[in-house]
Amino acid sequence: MDDERAVRTPAVGMPEMPSVPGFTHEYIETPGLRAHVAMAGEGEPIVMLHGLPQHWWQWREIGAGLAADHWVLCPDLRGFGWTRADAPGMGRMTQTDDLRAVLNALGVDRARVVAHDMGALTAAHLAYTAPERVSAMVILAVPPPFMPISLAMLPAMRHIPPLLFHRRGRSLAHVFDPPYVVRPLPEDTVATYLAPQVRPDIDAAINEVYRWLVLSEMPRMAGGSYRRARLTVPTLYALGDADKPLNATFVREQCGDTTRYADHVEIVGIPDAAHFMTDDNPAGVEAAIRDFFARF
Hints:
ten-stranded mixed β-sheet; Rossmann fold; about 300 residues; alpha/beta
């Protein structure tokens, strides 16, 4: 890797990095961004995109498992974790553009992608705009973007107003409580996820992400933009059985015949899991990922 683009020291003021055996860390300089990427293993690359309000450490178990036979890359997306941007603003495609730049710096032309929550939007943007870079994709806890938005989905959007109007300095620990998890997460796990939030730019990113989600992405979904496009990347959508209403049965019914909008889509349920399924049932999630990638 070019030494001018990758450095190994965190910026001053960053919270302490959690340690996970087998993972190394790089800081990659791209225009306007100093991106942190946690890496493990070797072989075919799998890019793992975290959700909100998480970071690379979300993949500490699943990523470590997949690293037994893959090169696992877990970037912190702009506004989260140990990545730092020159400017606080964020648009609809910003994180996707950042991801392309990071993959270019790492020499990754094509990869498998696993994404959860907010990261699923970044993955979708990459798959729709640059499908040649994604060989297969697994999306966790988020339905296909071509699924019609209906009143039946309203309970699944209850978290959006509080996060859209998030008051800076207020803890986000409440998002890790039921119904978003099957059981409350240990306090030290929540504390590790939220440690970077002490940085003002990361606290502000919550509002930035939900602003473009509500003002840009959701209108595109509601208006049918993704039903007029076509998803050519083979994709698995995995939904927690306890994540109501967005479980696999509901999403299948709402989507109908997926072949109208995609070349190959599968929708499966993950038992004993709600929205934060990578903490609820990491073994079940890893098994679903491995099964799908083995076939694609």
